[in-house]
Amino acid sequence: MWLSVSCLSAQKVFTQQELESVFNPVLVENAQALLRFEPIEINAGVLSEDDKPQVYTFTCTNVSKKRIVVTRISTTCGCTDAHIDHAVMNPGDKAVVSVTYNPFGQPGKLFTKAFVYTDISEKQPVAALSIVGKVTPSSALWKDYKYAMGNLRIRTKTVSFGAVSTGMHRVEKIACANAGNEVLRIGAVKGFLPEFIRLSTEPEVLEPGQEGYLILELDGGKIPGAKGKKQFNVLLDGISARPSDRTIKINVEIK
User: Fold this and answer.
1) Are residues 91 and 35 in contact, defined by beta-carbon separation less than 8 angstroms?
2) Considering the domain boundaries, does residue 12 fall inside one?
3) Which of 103, 127, 218, 237 could form a disulfide with 47 if both were Cys (CB 3.0 to 4.6 A apart)?
4) pTM to 2 decimals?
5) What share of the chain is helix, strand, coil (3-state, %, to 5)?
6) pLDDT tens, position by position, 27-53
7) 144 and 111 share a domain?
């Protein structure tokens, strides 16, 4: 496989092997017999784009019988920076590599590496340190959604169908979004939804960070005989919040 990268008027062609050597270089031979790192990988869990830069530390020990100098540490992302507190290590010496990760602008899967190079080889690192996890979108993305119902964000908690009569069919939508880390399947608690109104979501399942709609359909053929202005409270199901925080008010005038 061949890939080309343009740079101004010049063009260089990189093989897949050359790209791998940059983004996933092979470690120097017998790397673990030189510097031992604990841990090799850190699970950062779930971060938010709104979080401040996070610092993760890796401890290394010179387990060889010779002096080793850490010459540089490269990272796979501009969102990550790394440094070591003691670059020159005699046999038995310990040092700490600090890796700073900035989650801003990095929503999605977190996977970044720091490669530690020494005076043993400038081309092959002695260790590949990893940070894994997940970054959720900034809360600023949901600023247009005024109300929070657990991880569900919606723009309004009141729906008005206006004046309706037998045989009419109307649909109202409420824009919503999933601001959490798990999928949402929204429904209505039985007994809190009039039989002439149906609640659904579009899409049926809201993935983390996904926007959609709560859809309320009014079936005029099922409207009861009593006329006048009515208000119903619909208690949503599928979200973790107090009943008062996950209630939608429906206004309708039956004629």
Assistant:
1) no
2) no
3) 103
4) 0.57
5) 10, 55, 35
6) 988 888 999 999 999 999 999 888 999
7) no
